[in-house]
Design a protein that fits this description.
The chain has 200 residues and is an alpha+beta fold. Helix content is 34%, strand content 23%.
Length: 200
């Protein structure tokens, strides 16, 4: 007799990959999409390099050179931290706001300070490199118009390159969080739950 199975990311009969489970705690920071294959591949290569460096550390330690072994272990730890940070880069949401995690910097914006959030057509960086191409970006504008709009997602980063549908779902999900937890009296309340395409 076939039995339905409940997994960590899918309920029985659900077609979407990003559905929230009833016991999800919205106070916890979560990434509302799955890391893309390019990001996972880069982190996997870094972890593979870490494994070889730890093996070299063991060989050097057995050879009787503790100073060199310590240097190798430190270098392996640094590469491991790089791999873990690569996996954390992206946009995170919770009941408290939206957080943009970059490799060296993290910016958190409370929902009460979000004036608008929309998807626009604009030049975006391809895989984080200086070269830009025409693409889509989910941008956030803060109350008061202070500073440049913050780019939360692009369709050419390591998570969504050649994955337009995944980018659309992720943008819709972040906008839905803004619609649910944004200030009901501020400009954010005027932003619909769906995506708005604006050409600039």
């Amino acid at each position: 007799m076939p039995l339905p199975f409940l997994t960590a990311d899918r309920a029985p009969g659900a077609d979407g990959d990003d559905l929230a489970l009833p016991f999800d705690d919205h106070d916890q920071w979560r990434r509302p999409y799955r890391p893309g294959p390019w990001r996972v591949a880069a982190a996997a290569v870094a972890l593979l390099v870490t494994a070889f460096m730890l093996l070299a550390t063991l060989v050097v330690a057995l050879a009787g050179d503790p100073a060199a072994a310590g240097t190798c272990a430190g270098a392996a730890a640094a590469v491991l931290l790089v791999a873990l940070r690569l996996l954390r880069v992206g946009t995170w949401v919770s009941r408290h706001g939206v957080r943009r995690v970059r490799f060296l910097r993290t910016v958190t914006v409370p929902w009460s300070r979000v004036a608008s959030m929309r998807t626009v057509q604009q030049p975006v960086r391809c895989m984080g490199l200086p070269r830009t191409v025409q693409g889509q970006a989910l941008v956030l504008v803060r109350h008061g118009g202070t500073g440049e709009p913050m780019t939360l997602l692009t369709d050419h980063n390591a998570d969504f390159l050649a994955r337009v549908e995944a980018f659309d779902r992720a943008a819709d999900t972040v906008e839905a969080w803004n619609a649910e937890y944004g200030s009901p009296t501020g400009p954010a309340a005027a932003v619909p739950a769906g995506r708005s395409h604006v050409r600039v």
